[in-house]
């Protein structure tokens, strides 16, 4: 494959040409160029033709994906194919990644490399999430994106940290490298990246599909939260050099989760794996249990892997489990003392009520939000805010719930008196109260 020259043009299917402006980067499959097409700038992924196992079938699959459209706005989906075979290869156009998005690889490294303006020198720029909410939002967005993809009957097949770009301020997500996405049952030669591949793919007894995606998704989520490989502990450390045989052993035939409750042989090593040691105890037990299941029974039996809907419920719960205390402490609720149905800050002894639904407790503090998935029956909308906790401006420490919906709620006080909460109105909260959100959704304080 001949590299494309700046200033040259490539014909696009169905008309016009894309002008090459510059190179954006390169990888195992090809080079990505900055181009202009019909007055708009795009990224052009241009393939190393000899690296493609079935180039004609691969190209047809990309065309089919373009025609099918993206399953979600979270994907940087192929937009246009180049015409025929030019300069010994072909490629496709996709939208550019906005400047406020950072690669998950850089987030895991805690820095990104930037060129110093006006020079050929580079510098390290620190990268980190600005809040716990942004971390959890990123997890939610990753899960939702892959839920939509799998609902379309397609699998990504090569999940790894290089495929995700995240806004560290908000947790908004873009999934790139979408050219290997294929209908369930199809595969065009890609297997995945070591450390992310499901054990059955590493062992060569299965090809990438939706079930192997679910394993790789759990790895991505684990690394996002715990900044570590879920299978890299004492056993792997002893290998020193991870060659193909070692990969087959530690990530395939003898894969052991670092926090497997029944096998302690691969525990993280203090002084080497400090990130995961420190972060493991930060997250609530229900999150730890989900990853234990993913990397124990989920390693052995693909049918036991956690599905996207369950991950979504867990992370929406986790987002609502973050308590902001007025003393400045921001932690998950498991870091607070739970006594008599209230959370107590260990730093300042401030007390927090909780709104108790059937399957989730939500701490009450100024600014806390309730989402439609909590207050509406059978709803999985985790974005629409249906209630906000407000502090009384005249009486410090007195919290109220503001109704952000078009429905009227009913609050029953401890003495049995019923008060309505009309749309846009706020009602003071107190211990022993119940809130009827309608359609059998009732919460207690």
UniProtKB/TrEMBL annotation:
Q: Which residues form the Protein kinase domain?
A: 18-316
Q: Which SUPFAM superfamilies match?
A: Protein kinase-like (PK-like) (SSF56112)
Tell me which InterPro entries the record gives. Kinase-like_dom_sf (IPR011009), Prot_kinase_dom (IPR000719)
Gene3D superfamilies named in the record: Phosphorylase Kinase, domain 1, Transferase(Phosphotransferase) domain 1
Q: Which GO terms describe its molecular function?
A: ATP binding; protein kinase activity
PROSITE patterns, alphabetically? Answer: PROTEIN_KINASE_DOM
The name under which this protein is listed is Protein kinase domain-containing protein
Species whose genome carries this gene: Intestinibacter bartlettii CAG:1329
